[in-house]
Fold this sequence. Notes:
TATA-Binding Protein, single chain, six-stranded mixed β-sheet, alpha/beta, 3 domains, Alpha-D-Glucose-1,6-Bisphosphate, Chain A, domain 3, binds magnesium ion
Amino acid sequence: MNYNENNSEAPKLFGTSGIRGKVGSEVTLELALGIGRSLSTLLGEGHRIVVGYDSRTSNKMLESALTAGILEGGCNVLSIGLAPTPLVGYATMKIGADAGVMITASHNPPQDNGIKVWNRNGMAYRAHQERALEKVIHYKTFTNTSWENIGRVKDISSLSSLYITDLLNFINIKPGLKVVVDCANGAASYMSPLLLRKAGCDVITLNSQPDGFFPGRMPEPSDKNLGELKKMVKKSKADLGIAHDGDADRMVAVDEKGVMAEFDKLLSLVASEIGGRVVTTVDASSTIDLCMDKIDGQVIRTEVGDVHVAEAIEEHKASFGGEPSGTWIHPDFCMCPDGLLSALRVIELVQKKGPLSQLLKNVPSFPTLRERIDCKEDQKNLVMEKVKKKLPHLFESVIKVDLIDGVRISMKNGNWILIRPSGTEPYLRITLGGKTIEEAQKMMERCKGFLGGLM
Ligand code: MG
């Protein structure tokens, strides 16, 4: 290594949702050790860090390295073991620990793993906090703790029963609903069925044994991965189907007819039920605006990523926040996105107001299309400058232009378009919604032609 490299800026390790990548090449023992050491260095001796992991084959391996790093720096590990991400966030908050670390790659394929760090209120680490960790790792300014101050490990896995009790006290569900839950063989495999049974639901489970090979389905809860769940809901005449991603900070629902709920419609339905001021990201459709308008609520938009949603909830004292992917934050419970609580919210709603398919029928629909256009890294800024100037004039009756994350325009009839650069890949992303799928397709053609002319 030459001196220039030594003095170079610390490389970025954290992406939009923690660290994620291939085990062994991108997410390594050295990396987990480095995160443990840097956390301990920054927090200082004697502080407490909750550590949990999802069901991946590399979970114990990475946990051991991370724990070693934390202990070396003199911090103590509160080990919660296999746990959904929201339990790690909740435990950190409940105990008043100084940080939480979840070892997970969320919905990524089995070959991947990752690390995400949480604050003491259960909120994801902000960008500047992640940057501080990256710098300690890069410059190796780790604390050397003397032998008598090396940290200790305490098992806190029993806290999961308190989590379930607190969730059930937070929400009001009566016994009687039949629910099929598909845990993807992920982190919520034991917890989510147990919670739903304690809530009084008649529960049928799918893929509810933790297994790092994800033999039942891939951990992404997409429509194409949920065939078995949709079939089982119909076959068993259940009221609802629930599916989690690998770490269960997300939840998607299947209605009683076996149809997966549109992300934006479900988000809007729950947001308007909670009411008040709600936060969502720029890539959510106009559905939420129309729903919140009806009840005199307010929508605050933010950049894509759950940490931005959490920051905006804090800043605006919002009652709820969510991304259309099904990552929802319930701030009155905890600042960590919680797919188990999200499931309880949907169950509560169905019990109060009727079958999910009927409830969704009354929510305005804006079929959403997503495409990506090649754009070299060094061209992104220039092209986005042109998009900013020209896109608002490309369509008629534009009533709002948002520049929070890329360029988002809203039209009088509810149609909307978002063009934003990918943070990690050489693309621009077009996301848009139209009153009908035909309208959306026409808008997409026009946007692609427009972008083609700018490059
Ligand atoms: Mg997740």
